[in-house]
């Protein structure tokens, strides 16, 4: 009896194994049939929003996958799209006061001394440097908007306009254009002796002397004093206050 029972158990185990193999094979056949009947489906893409307009006047956008591919479908990448978003030339960066770097910012990058959306504005009074963020140290006088170098008013000189000199009576003081620390002095008189033009002493010297009608003037006292010995003609294209008078022009610079 024991051998008969043992044989029956073997037959049951064998039957279960054969049934499992048949079920697995049947599942594989059904899967292969479903694969053969599946049609390739490509992925679905959608465009992202346009990027903000750069200071070069263009914008771009990219795409993203909203549904993946199936049944062997493809998913090709879409190229980046670009378009012009501003055609107004007044909006672009003003050359040569600023430049545009669209890879880092959509705004104009202004050079020192300039400000504004298109870099078309100079730094305000008493400001200089990049972005006009630095404050001048010129005792209230103007400074170069790029470097901060002081442009001293007549009567002041020095790196920070901290030195003063006396303004003599009867002399017109004119600050020269640019960043030079020099200034011009004009002395008008009826006689040559009274037309003597003296630069501030000992702080300044006269590097150039000129008469009111263009001829050279005398340079006296080791470069500190100038004097004209000829009168301005009484006719021609001259200032009415200069005609028939001695006009001495001195260009004075600090030592």
Describe this structure in words.
It contains 1 helix and 21 strands. It has 255 residues and is α+β, with helices and mostly antiparallel strands. The chain has a domain at 167-254.
Short description:
The protein has one helix spanning 2-37, and strands at 44-47, 58-61, 63-67, 81-84, 98-100, 108-110, 114-115, 121-122, 127-128, 134-135, 142-143, 150-151, 156-157, 163-164, 171-175, 183-189, 197-198, 204-211, 218-220, 225-227, 246-254.
How are the SSEs placed, and which strands pair?
Layout: H1 2-37, E1 44-47, E2 58-61, E3 63-67, E4 81-84, E5 98-100, E6 108-110, E7 114-115, E8 121-122, E9 127-128, E10 134-135, E11 142-143, E12 150-151, E13 156-157, E14 163-164, E15 171-175, E16 183-189, E17 197-198, E18 204-211, E19 218-220, E20 225-227, E21 246-254
Antiparallel strand pairs: 1-3, 2-4, 5-6, 7-8, 9-10, 11-12, 13-14, 15-16, 16-21, 17-20, 18-21, 19-20
